[in-house]
Amino acid sequence: MKTTRVLIIVVLVIVIIPLIGYAGWMLKKGESLEVFVVNKSLTEYRGSENRAMNSVLNRQKILTAGNRLYNLKTDHHGLLWDKGEYMVKFPRLNELDRVAEISDMVYYADASGIMTSDTRSLGEGETDQVEYGGINNTDYTFIRKLISMDKPLVLECSFLGPPTEPLVRYNLEQMTDVYYVGWLGTYVKDLSREPGHGAVEDCKEMYRNYTGKEWSFRGPGIILVNTGAGRILVLEEGKEIHTSDGLIVSTEDAMEKYGFPEAVNYSGWFTLLHPGRNEVCSEFQLNPTEEGKQLLNEFGIPETFPALIHAEDNLWFLAGDFGKCKSSKVIPRLWSVGPFMEWLNGNGKNESNFFYTYYQPFMRTVLEEAREMKSN
User: Fold this and answer.
1) How far apart are CA 144 and CA 258, in angstroms?
2) pLDDT surpasses 50 at 175
């Protein structure tokens, strides 16, 4: 009898409840919203910012102008792949006014670009170079139009850093009062392993070139790099930084407005920005020891720096590679299960919950503002 009850509960949890949830999602009325997504680095959809954003759009059942669900494998601008070759899709200068007018929200998900080695094998003696990426003058003109029209605009992580053209970066900084200070960072669970490919391809080699020493770090820690100056700083947890329950800490106003937890762990890449006179909604906190403070002072790096900046009424800067967080492909379409998963994953201390605790609540708030503006 007990076995039968357990079996019934298992069937309910695994089969019946998800089916009811899917039916509820299917019955939910979709809403058309023109979401213009730019990704200049999309070589693979899985694990990209586009997938996380697609999950948010599907969860909200936001539809394209063609009255279908978004598929950000192809429903984006920037870098697109076709039969093993890439192409660039972006409006021309004479089209920008029209695109800005019809767009309800614009999201620059990734502008870091692709290298020659991402598209083909390098020949002998050939140098790896940027094939496509960065914010150019066309992007700047488009962003300026969007800001002047007060359209909801989110710029994520790599918008101001290389390979963005220096003059374009300067113009963007002057227009938004947000400044790139040259440093990138990432939290690493095990420093003895290669951090992986991202804004910096080989931190170990950079460290050897900069210090003349071999990489001997172990355990969790934070790597900070300045690619332009060739400088690198490694902070080991328990030595230069304290163990902390949350790398990102939000203000009370941001917690109320976006539904953030007070602190959330994050393990991706981030960019050090100066917020100017703008509102800082969340900030990275390194939580250094006395030894760590001395090192940070030597390198001119602050102990805290912005994670989310609210610049204009409808302009936000995400200083982390937040969109690369893990998200479910199925759960967004389970109407009753989605809220349950959000509640279940509401503890920000586990960085695997970052999508539910930080990214999705933020994007949901921005989309809601886009809806309200469209209806007015």
Assistant:
1) 25
2) yes
154: confidence class by pLDDT, cuts 50, 70, 90:
very high
- What is residue 53's predicted lDDT score, i.e. its pLDDT? 94
Residue closest to 248 by CA, chosen among 286, 200, 293: 286
Q: Tell me the pTM.
A: 0.87
Q: What pLDDT digit, counting tens, does each position of 318-328 carry?
A: 999 998 887 65
Answer for the pair 308, 280: CB distance below 8 angstroms, yes or no: yes
Mean of all residue pLDDT scores within the chain: 85
Instruction: For residue 33, give both structure tokens.
Output: 């919203």
Helix (H) or strand (E) holding 333: none
Radius of gyration of the chain (CA): 22
Strands 248-250 and 231-236: unpaired
Separation CA 31–CA 288 (nearest Å): 46
For every residue of 18-69, DSSP letters joined together read: HHHHHHHHHHSPPEE--EEEEES--S-STTSHHHHHHHHHHHTTEE-TTSSB
215: number of Cβ within 10 Å: 16
Residue type, 214: E
Q: Which residue has the tokens 């890439």?
A: 86
In the DSSP assignment, the letter for residue 351 is G
| Helical residues (DSSP H) of the chain, grouped into ranges | 2-11, 17-27, 49-59, 96-102, 116-119, 137-148, 166-176, 203-211, 252-258, 290-299, 337-344, 354, 360-375
Strand partners, 221: 188, 236
> How far apart, in Å, do the first and last CA atoms of the chain sit?
59
The tens digit of pLDDT for each residue in 179-222 reads 999 999 998 888 887 655 444 447 888 899 999 998 888 888 99
Burial 5-27 (b: 16+ CB within 10 A, else e): eeeeeeeeeeeeebeebbeebee
User: Beta strands 279-285 and 248-250: pairing type?
Assistant: antiparallel
Contact partners, residue 131, CB within 8 Å, separation at least 6: 86, 113, 114, 115, 116, 118, 119
Choose among 50, 75, 62: nearest CA to 370.
Answer: 62
Task: Give the orientation angle of helix 49-59 with respect to helix 360-375, to 10 degrees.
Answer: 60
